[in-house]
Amino acid sequence: MTSLSPSLPIEGQAQGLPVNIEHFRRGMRRLTGAVNLVTTMHRDQPHGLTATAVCSLSGQPPRLLACVNVAGKTFDYILQSRRMGVSVLAYRHLDLAKAFANMVDIGREKRFSDAAWAWTDTGAPVLSDALVAFDCVVDELFVTPSHGVIIGEIKQVRFGPEGDPLLYNEGVFTTLRATP
Ligand SMILES: Cc1cc2nc3c(=O)[nH]c(=O)nc-3n(C[C@H](O)[C@H](O)[C@H](O)COP(=O)(O)O)c2cc1C
User: Atom 14 (ligand 1): residue with closest C-alpha?
Assistant: First the structure.
């Protein structure tokens, strides 16, 4: 039987390292994330960013959460509009993910003109051909010094064409590999 005593390391067990920013980043790079666009509409202008910090929260009521940097413009606009669209990206959306992460400099307006958008009931734009898109109203919000944890109540689910998911792992965009 395997002992869980801290004085007897389990074979192959990773060594505990102190938490510093380098170890934090290295660790988080292994936390593979699904890539999404978190969007909103403010004064008739669409805004959005690329985000992996999105997850399901509850089925009843239907809620999800997204963590958005408070230093960015999109956070302010979501705060004001209380509307949030979450478009789950396919690998075919790679260029869009880069544009919404400011990894390529195409300008904020072109971010939206380069793709087809659907206008939801709540008013938040979502990508027309996302794998799936969630139209949300902001339900609750927790603001930490760096990020807002935004809980959205899902008002509508829109299914787009199927495809390989866009993922982010070890600092690169990727997709699922076939299991052996
Ligand atoms: C793969 C990837 C995932 C990201 N995930 C998040 C995230 O979950 N939350 C966030 O606030 N920013 C995230 N970012 C950074 C934003 O996309 C980036 O800072 C964006 O340009 C901010 O736009 P804004 O200034 O319009 O708010 C991510 C970037 C990349 C490349």
Answer: 51
Q: Residue with structure tokens 């929260």?
A: 57
Residues 6+ apart with CB under 8 A from 70: 143, 144, 145, 146, 147, 148
Q: Give the distance (Å) from ligand 1 centre to CA of residue 33.
A: 12
Residue 9 — very low, low, confident or very high, per pLDDT cuts 50/70/90? low
Q: Which helix (H) or strand (E) holds 97?
A: helix 94-100
In the chain, domain spans: 36-167
pTM for the whole thing? 0.92
Please report the atom of ligand 1 found closest to the CA of residue 101: 17
Average confidence (pLDDT) over 74-89: 97
Atom of ligand 1 nearest to the CA of 66: 8
pLDDT in tens, 102-159: 999 877 777 898 899 998 988 999 999 999 999 999 999 999 999 999 999 999 999 9
Q: DSSP letter at 166?
A: P
**Per CATH, is 36-167 categorized as 3.10.20.310?**
no
